[in-house]
Write a structure and sequence with these properties.
Blueprint (H helix, E strand, L loop, with lengths): L10 H23 L4 H15 L24 E3 L5 E5 L6 E2 L14 E3 L4 E4 L13 E3 L4 E2 L15 H4 L4 E3 L24 E2 L12 E3 L4 E4 L13 E3 L4 E4 L13 E3 L4 E4 L3 H4 L6 E3 L4 E5 H4 L8 E3 L4 E5 L4 H4 L5 E3 L4 E4 L10 E3 L4 E2 L12 E3 L6 E3 L1 H4 L7 E3 L4 E3 L11 E3 L6 E3 L12 E3 L4 E5 L12 E3 L4 E4 L13 E3 L4 E4 L13 E3 L4 E2 L5 H7 L1
């Protein structure tokens, strides 16, 4: 049997308990009068709600009069050994309607209710508060309106056994549980986003998981947030919070995932976060945070992803970062004020974004697992040949706006984007460029490249952007470039090309931008150029 013990202190809440008990007694009396078992009444309660929906795909929800437990086989329904309904999970079932006919008191054993990603609207009935065994409630991405029912006022009012089960506290997009019922604005907007501030009482909940991402929450995070000593996963991203990061966010040293990106947080990293050795993922992109990263980044032995781009951090990336963070795979520190060289200890790194800083030195040759390398708009010097040659899985290489020298490196066939514009690269474009069957962007604008455009370039059939402008390229435009049917942007301006524009380029029917100016081309401008670009 399921227990229904609720503890309330206020007189009003005591009245609610009495009302709930009377409702349960009335339900049992009616069940007894019509001769139904508890399992049958639960099944009929679900069918009553199904019948109220405007659109649903619950075809398996059919009552078998010869089998009182037939609902155990219904899609989305979980039952215990006594065939009592313990779970209703109908995520992305295209349900359209309300919860008005959802008879919560008829499902006293319900522990899990997940109706996320549907088209439900209206209010959340106050009778949901009769579900004293409820441990997991998710109504994300619907259109429910506020206010939140008082019957879900606070998990602290439930018995201690149930209380611990409210540890996963999801607050995303269309959700419900507050310690204090607060009007948080309409959820009937097209985006169905919540607004307002987080209640201070949230700090006292024994949360393990808290998601507020992709809403319109504002204000400061409560200063003592994190004191519950249970938090493992926090996502505050994409809201309008401001002020300092909560100082006690990792007091427990259990926090593994923390995302506070895309806000207006400011100030230094709190000490508890700097010393949080349990972290696996830390994302603080696009804030106003500052501090010396060579001093503020602690020892994170399990950290896999570190994202602090678009802030005001300064200093240099610690040279021993590969030892203090041996599992680091993703590092994003772009758009800050970081100086010094890229450390040579980042052996495990697969993604590095340090663009728009003041990075100096050479590209390390000790990053064999690198897949996405973005170091544009820095002061990096030296050749690319030694480093790129060791990156056999490289997909993105962006070192535009630096001081690179030497020749174009031999590029791996895995490459999707190659951008080295505005450097000092000399020599010829290698014939091996024709092996880049997966490349979408090839941008070598503003270097000192000479020689011919390799005819093998026409083998790069996926190319969408080809920019060879502002170099010293000679002779004719290869006929084979007409094979680049996906080309959108084609720039050859400011070179020393000669001959006529090949008619094969008419096959590049998707062209939006074409610039062949400042060359030594002859002949007429083909009429197809005007037709294509019109």
């Amino acid at each position: 049997m399921c227990q229904h013990v609720l503890y309330y202190q206020a007189d009003e809440l005591e009245k609610q308990v009495k009302s709930k008990k009377l409702a349960e007694k009335e339900r049992k009396r009616m069940v007894q009068e019509i001769g139904l078992s508890d399992t049958e009444s639960e099944a009929r309660a679900l069918l009553k709600w199904k019948a109220s929906l405007k659109n649903q795909t619950l075809n398996s929800w059919i009552l078998n009069p010869n089998n009182k437990t037939s609902h155990r086989g219904w899609i989305g329904i979980d039952c215990n050994d006594q065939a009592r309904v313990t779970g209703v999970s109908l995520v992305r079932f295209n349900l359209n309607g309300t919860l008005d006919q959802f008879d919560f008191p008829s499902l006293p054993c319900l522990a899990t209710l997940d109706l996320s990603f549907n088209h439900l609207d209206g209010t959340i009935p106050a009778t949901i508060g009769t579900l004293s065994n409820l441990t997991d409630l998710a109504l994300l991405r619907n259109g429910f309106s506020t206010p939140i029912p008082n019957s879900l006022d606070a998990p602290k009012h439930f018995n201690p056994q149930s209380f611990n089960m409210w540890s996963e506290f999801k607050y995303s997009s269309s959700n419900w549980i507050y310690e204090e019922p607060v009007f948080i604005g309409s959820l009937r907007e097209p985006s169905h986003r919540l607004s307002g501030s987080l209640p201070s009482s949230i700090s006292g909940l024994p949360l393990v998981t808290l998601f507020t991402d992709d809403n319109n929450f504002s204000g400061a995070i409560p200063a003592d947030f994190g004191q519950s000593n249970q938090l493992e996963d926090i996502n505050f991203s994409s809201n309008s919070f401001y002020g300092a990061l909560p100082s006690r966010v990792c007091d427990n040293n259990k926090l593994m995932y923390f995302d506070a990106s895309y806000y207006s947080f400011m100030g230094l990293l709190p000490e508890s976060l700097r010393n949080c050795t349990s972290l696996i993922w830390l994302s603080l992109n696009k804030n106003y945070l500052d501090g010396n990263i060579s001093e503020d980044l602690g020892n994170y032995p399990d950290l896999s992803g570190l994202y602090i781009s678009e802030n005001q951090f300064f200093g240099f990336i610690p040279q021993n970062i590969g030892k203090t963070m041996p599992n680091l795979t993703f590092l994003s520190v772009g758009n800050n004020h970081i100086t010094g060289p890229i450390p040579s200890t980042l052996m495990s790194l697969q993604y590095l974004n340090a663009s728009y800083n003041h990075i100096t030195g050479n590209i390390p040759s000790s990053m064999p697992n690198m897949m996405r390398l973005s170091l544009s708009n820095n002061l990096i010097t030296g050749s690319t040949s030694a480093s790129v040659g060791n990156m056999s899985e490289l997909a993105i290489f962006n070192l535009s706006e630096n001081n690179l020298t030497g020749t174009m490196p031999s590029l791996p066939p895995t490459l999707n984007y190659f951008m080295i514009s505005n450097n000092h690269i000399m020599g010829n474009i290698p014939n091996s460029i024709g092996y880049l069957s997966n490349v979408y962007i090839l941008d070598v604008y503003g270097n000192g490249l000479s020689g011919i455009i390799p005819p093998s370039s026409g083998n790069c059939s996926l190319l969408e952007v080809l920019d060879l402008s502002n170099n010293n390229l000679l002779e004719n435009i290869p006929w084979s470039l007409g094979n680049l049917e996906n080309l959108l942007t084609f720039r050859l301006n400011d070179n020393k090309l000669s001959g006529e524009i090949p008619s094969s380029l008419k096959n590049c029917s998707n062209l939006e931008i074409i610039d062949f100016g400042e060359n030594q081309l002859s002949g007429d401008i083909p009429p197809w150029i005007g037709e294509s670009l019109s």
